[in-house]
Design a protein that fits this description.
The structure holds two protein chains of two kinds. In chain A, the strands form three sheets. Chain A has a ten-stranded mixed beta sheet with strand order 5-4-6-7-1-8-14-13-9-10, sandwiched between helices. Chain A has a two-stranded antiparallel ribbon with strand order 2-3. The two termini of chain A are 24 Å apart. By secondary structure, chain A is α/β, with parallel strands linked by helices. Chain A has a single domain (1-421), classed as Peroxisomal Thiolase, Chain A, domain 1 (3-Layer(aba) Sandwich). Chain A has 15 helices and 14 strands. Chain B has one domain: Orthogonal Bundle (Non-ribosomal Peptide Synthetase Peptidyl Carrier Protein, Chain A), CATH 1.10.1200.10. Chain B has helices at 3-17, 40-54, 60-63, 69-84. The longest helix of chain B is centred in the last third of the chain and has 16 residues, at 69-84. Chain B is globular. Classes of the chains: A alpha/beta, B mainly alpha. Chain A binds chain B through residues 68-69, 125, 128-131, 133, 135-137, 140, and chain B through 19, 40-42, 44-45, 48, 51-52, 55-58, 60.
């Protein structure tokens, strides 16, 4: 009988707040963390609306001193998120115990872009030098696995480590990989999730020119109120809004959690990943439906047991429609009975961190027995599910499902069950 | 700029870049690696910062020959004087 995998701690850093509580409070109050930013000036950026995290900026007093040489914001946020998640789990208290084995702690932190912000910074610096040299911390700060590496270094985690770079599904993939390490008997604990800060002109403008990002056209409601630019499942949705952030879960085998007396916040009862094998960016209905069906089946769940679906819901025309159709196909009537919401209306799309943030929110939803809303929602007659429009609400939650899909045709589904907290 | 103020500036930047605590004294004859414990990556960061700040080019091979603060000061001073001449 394989070990059960439980969540003993979680954290999130988003444009709504510097920690999980502030993020949750913002979601419950239906606030948006998205606005127009002067930093995204029109002479370099094609979009100025974004969800930027206040603080954790390298080279400023808000940076994480432990990693000050590595000027990639994703690493700074990952360190802060790790500290908060470990404290939430109480793991920081037991690390000094004689029979606590750091070789049994895995780290799996993913990102879509890693330290691309540092690359931009170094290119700007290099252009001012008389040689072609770049800073010696560019390469170690840019590689996607450095967030995992720094967490391992500063929080004494010497077990297995992987850092999925699966685009906008990276964080969820990391959680799935961590769970696999636990059930394989390779670790007792895993620090897992995602981190992202990719605000460089090339990346923002690249998303904009491929028509993935929302735009503030005259006459549109976001023209005067940028906080309404992200509007998942709405009739007038027109693309996602880029944001940044980080979120980590601390997973444990059930026996490790019991041994150390750690509270079980939720149980991770299902996880799955697959590939579309179809297109560079366009998602594939059948593949996503297969994954959702298969992950439910492997968790021995019927659609009637799902109480909430936390959507990828990016606010793009194609994906929101596809996800709605997949839900109707796989869950049948149950799709119309349960709340389905996307927090990207409030916090935008944090790319490789998004699915980790959503996983943390799912854990929090189970603990609080409340579901976050889809804000800025205006009904679309074609999309006829209960999207929890514009108001959070209490709910009886035993099982919640979160799904994420990334460019390159990569998908994941995570299923959480209520814990004993 | 005289060598003394140049040395003071360079000591400040060595301290900042290599995160050397204020209770550790840095003098002209302080050896960068042996006395101050600066690793190879921070050493390159110091050299790059110096290039940028003083508008000079430093040959990568020269870095290996900079053992002390005085070596760094001498190198920068020589290049600044050459540029001014």
């Amino acid at each position: 009988m394989p070990e059960r995998v439980v969540v003993v701690g979680h954290s999130a850093i988003t444009c709504l707040g510097r920690d999980m509580d502030a993020t949750w409070q913002g979601l419950m109050e239906c606030r948006s963390g998205l606005k127009s930013h002067e930093k995204l000036s029109p002479d370099r950026y094609l979009r100025d609306v974004a969800g930027l995290v206040e603080g954790y900026d390298p080279g400023t007093p808000t940076e994480e001193a432990l990693v000050s040489r590595l000027e990639a914001k994703s690493i700074h946020m990952a360190i802060a998120a790790a500290r908060m998640a470990l404290a939430d789990a109480g793991l920081d208290r037991i690390q000094a115990s004689d029979d606590y084995d750091p070789h049994r702690v895995a780290v799996c932190v993913g990102s879509a872009f890693g330290g691309q912000d540092l690359l931009q910074l170094e290119l700007d610096r290099s252009s001012r030098r008389k040689t072609n040299s770049v800073g010696p911390y560019l390469v170690p700060g840019m590689i996607i696995n450095q967030a995992s590496g720094q967490i391992a270094q500063h929080f004494n985690a010497y077990g297995p480590s992987v850092s999925p770079a699966n685009a906008c599904a990276a964080g969820g993939h990391s959680v799935a990989m961590a769970a696999m390490h636990l059930v394989a008997g390779e670790a007792d604990f895993a620090i897992c999730g995602g981190t992202e800060s990719a605000f460089t002109p090339s990346i923002v403008n690249g998303f904009a020119t491929m028509k993935a990002l929302a735009n503030r056209k005259e006459g549109d409601r976001a023209h005067t109120d940028p906080s309404q630019a992200s509007r998942p499942f709405s009739a007038d949705r027109m693309g996602f809004v880029m944001s940044e952030g980080a979120a980590l879960l601390v997973l444990a085998t059930e026996s490790a959690a019991r041994k150390w007396g750690l509270p079980v916040q939720a149980e991770l009862i299902g996880w799955g990943t697959n590939s579309d094998g179809y297109h560079v960016t366009t998602p594939h209905h059948d593949r996503i439906a297969y994954l959702l069906k298969n992950t439910l089946s492997r968790a021995k769940l019927s659609p009637s047991q799902v109480d909430y679906y936390n959507a990828h819901g990016t606010s793009t025309v194609v994906l929101d429609r596809l996800e709605t159709e997949v839900l109707k196909e796989v869950l049948g009537q149950r799709a119309r009975e349960i709340p389905v919401s996307s927090i990207k209306g409030a916090i935008g799309h944090a790319l490789g961190a998004a699915s980790a943030i959503e996983a943390a929110v799912c854990v929090h939803s189970l603990m609080e027995q409340r579901v976050p809303p889809t804000i800025n929602h205006v009904p679309d007659p074609e999309l006829d599910l209960d999207f929890v429009p514009n108001h959070s609400r209490p709910a009886n939650l035993e099982v919640v499902v979160s799904a994420s899909f990334g460019f390159g045709g990569t998908n994941n589904v995570l299923i959480f069950k209520r814990g004993d907290q | 700029m005289n060598d003394q103020s140049l040395q003071a500036e360079l000591i400040d930047s060595v301290r900042a870049i290599a995160r050397i605590p204020s209770d550790i004294a840095i003098a002209s004859d302080s050896r960068l690696v042996e006395d101050l414990g600066i690793d190879s990556l921070d050493l390159v960061s110091i050299v790059l910062n110096t290039q940028e700040r003083y508008g000079i080019a430093i040959d990568e091979d020269e870095v290996a020959r900079m053992h002390s603060v005085a070596d760094l000061v001498t190198y920068v001073s020589r290049h600044l004087n050459a540029a001014a001449a």
